Fold this protein.
Amino acid sequence: MATGTFAQSIQSPNGRHTVAFQLTPAGEPTYQLTIDGKPVVKPGKLGLSIQNLPALTRDFKIEKTDTSTSSTVWKPAYGEVREIKDHHRELAVHLRHVSNVSLILRFRVFNDGLGFRYEIPAQPNLTYFIVTDEHTEFRLNGNHKAFWIPGDYDTNKYPYSTTLLSEVDALTVSNRHTEIGTRSPIGKNYVQTPLMMHSGDGLYINIHEAALVDYSAMQLQVDQQNFTLTSHLVPDAVGNKAYVRTPFKTPWRTILVSNKAVDLLNSKTILNLNEPSKITDTNWIKPQKFVGVWWEMHIGTATWDYAGTQDMYSPEILSNLKPTGKHGATTANTKRYIDFAARHGFDGVLIEGWNTGWEDWFGKWKEDVFDFVTPYPDFDVAELKRYAASKDVKLIMHHETSGSVTNYERRMQDAYRFMKENGYETVKTGYVGRIIPRGEHHDGQWMVNHYNRVAQALADQKIMLDAHEPVPPTGLHRTYPNWMASEAARGNEFNAWSVGNPPEHETILPFTRLLGGPMDYTPGIFEIKMSAYKPGTAFQVHTTLAKQLALYVTMYSPLQMVADLPENYESRPDAFQFIKDVPVDWDDSRVLAAEPGDYIITARKGKGENTWYVGAVTDEEKRAVPINFDFLNPRQDYLVTLYADALDAHWKDNPMNYTIQQFLVTHNSIVKVILAAGGGAALKIKPATEEEKKRVKRYRERR
């Protein structure tokens, strides 16, 4: 690219990352990113198209540049660590377009990557405008291996494909997965963010966005010859991307990069690019484990609707799920779950299918199906409020909108009042189906604003949120800490009634979906094969039972569901003990080892306690993984309880065989753990008592 006006370059605080900005001779804004002098993103163009104005892609002049350094520490209301350091350097480039429009490009460089955004200040000649396109380029330095899902305006519930960038074929993948009810695939060479890549020269690169507010989600068009990714914003019904007023700023475009995969998983850059909490008093926000009337509907032994004759599934798979005629959300069944939660120390009970409308909801594209306050005749709201309170268990509300967002917006204040009156402090929302108003998409600006309005409205009522079928998270749980978890990816439920999630799925999600925020993945399935409920079916969870335990550590969420049926846990009380013990809030978290698509080993220290938990998961390959305990206190002996795959375990052939062992370790210990194909291991590590030191054998120390 020809040399133009050089503005400035800045480095990350540790000096490894450098971002440089310049204008080409034609006045085109460009940037580049290097690590240790090695190109990550080659000079790529930046710009916006605004309706009724010349494209803001060239004919710029630099008015001034500002640089600054910031180093602060903040404490999240809950999370993976007790406190987070925000240390970055910033470059702000003030540009003036030939049309007299002022534009600021702001870059922040962290020790693990870069965030940048467009800002349009208040100015007399531009107060309201329509963004028709964004022209952000990520010119990569090669044909990287990519972990991707198809570009789609309405769903991200795809299994990941792993190919070179030149081999991306999103349409073929999209057409293969017919169990996804609503799909809006864009084209062959479009993918969603977060996009994870591994370069040929050993770099791990992730592209996503942070602080998605009042704008459309960014997807990426792949130039499969030149390996350039270009931003593609989700449009509305008439093709526009965003309607905004000045002063205005886009979400941050993020590039995380390191030569160590664990650095991306340990990164807090996306959180640091979000605004501080809008909620002053967060004491009412409580991480929690919960059970629920939920899995039995997915496995087909109960139904959401009162009549017991409807299924949520698309016609392609209805032949595999026959209606049972058994309504799940009854007063008696809910009390059974409340008793189970109270007996084992769980915080809440989710109830799906409690309210009228389920006979007429899926795929109908009807506007007025649910009112969110009218229970079925067999669900006694007042009695369950009394009963749950007597057991010190909280009920969790479910609001399925069936995509009719206009209906939900009209009714949600009444629905939230109903929740507060009846003791519900958490709500799980759902947006299955095509969005109403027609022409809007799940990931467009209109819906982005809706999700954020819901989070704020719930905060006003001191209600916590678990959002399903939302836009991919972008770190907004810092700004709205009551927005505790989201789905926004292919969850564990797909294993109950489809081809399922391949064993590598849970080794990719932390490098993609979870970089934006906690996921309600619903782990903890103990009855792995669905033939236990539907004889002859081949559907199953594609993990071992031990891996389901490990997911409580490797897949972070402050809202963790204990997803299986109560009887499946109580028939295996020894393995169930780990789920009862493992926290959902942490003082410290460290990814010890990881490779996307292969394996992850994560250690976490419980909030306010001196106990650590480790989760290790693998893909379809059997592995022997060393776990190094050098994160432990060097002056303490520790008792390890290891929940591991049995030697003959295998995700498909023998998924429910596991072993439980105890031994002593110190911070010098390295323990080799065998992970079965599709398997995992979960470890509880607590300071050993004097009695335990005498009774339990010591693991062989490192020489």
Residues 313-431 form a domain with the TIM Barrel fold (CATH 3.20.20.70).
